Amino acid sequence: MAPQYKLSYFNVRGLAETARFLLSYMEVDFEDNRINKEQWAVLKATMPFGKMPVLEVDGKPLSQSVAICRYLGNLAGLAGEDLWENTQIDIMADTLTDVRLPISAFIWEPNEELRKSKKDTYIKETLPFYMKKLDAIVKENGGYLANKKLSWVDFLFASITEFLSYATDVPDATADYPNLHALKEKIFDLPQIKKWVENRPSTAF
Question: Where do the GST N-terminal domain residues begin and end (predicted)?
């Protein structure tokens, strides 16, 4: 019998979207359990570490968004062939976390002037620093982030580009980086991902 998957997260793309991409890529049925604020107040205490996303596999919970992606990546045949290759994928996943985390410094900044300053610094300095290096890595890897082949971290990158557009008001953060842009388009052009994107709930981010 096929495993039963239930992915719980808020009604946004956020940290759960890569898992949704991977489950869609695997073409397996899964429950996309979207939690509202009222439900979360009750459910929070039942979640591992009081956070989401949480993926339940036959009722057994997995927490932490990147760990969930790594698990699904293995199931989908999108992991490395050995420890070295898996470490290369993990390096890219951790680097993408470094790209994403500074965004919270300006998104949640209550002072409008300071928020604008932090956002400008991120757009003009932090983001280009990472994008330039990642673009070169993708070029060296034949169009992928690691090991010269498609892996789960490429799906993570694609989902993060959507969040970058929302957070920075830059329509396409990959526009000036041809190798990253091609990789993003490659993921969104996959039939399974196209189908998911066309049918998923419409949310701001």
Answer: 3-80
109-151 per-position pLDDT tens digit: 999 999 999 999 999 999 999 999 999 999 999 999 999 999 9
Classify the C-alpha dihedral 80-103-54-191 as positive or negative: negative
Cα 35 from chain centroid (whole Å)? 19
Residues 90 and 175 in one domain: yes
Q: Is there a cis peptide before residue 53, judged by omega within 30 degrees of 0?
A: yes
Percent pLDDT > 90 in the chain is 97
Residue 201 identity (one-letter amino acid)? P
Task: Give residue-wise pLDDT tens across range 91-111.
Answer: 999 999 999 999 999 999 999
Residue 73 and residue 89 share a domain:
no
Contacts of 116 (CB under 8 A, 6+ apart): 106
Measured distance CA(21)–CA(173) in Å, rounded = 20
CATH of the domain at 87: 1.20.1050.10
> Among 65, 53, 64, 34, which Cα is nearest to 203's?
34
Q: Which of 164, 166, 156 is nearest to 73 (CA)?
A: 156
* b/e sequence 163-199, b meaning 16+ C-beta within 10 Å: bbebbbeeeebbeebebbbebbeebbebeebeebbee
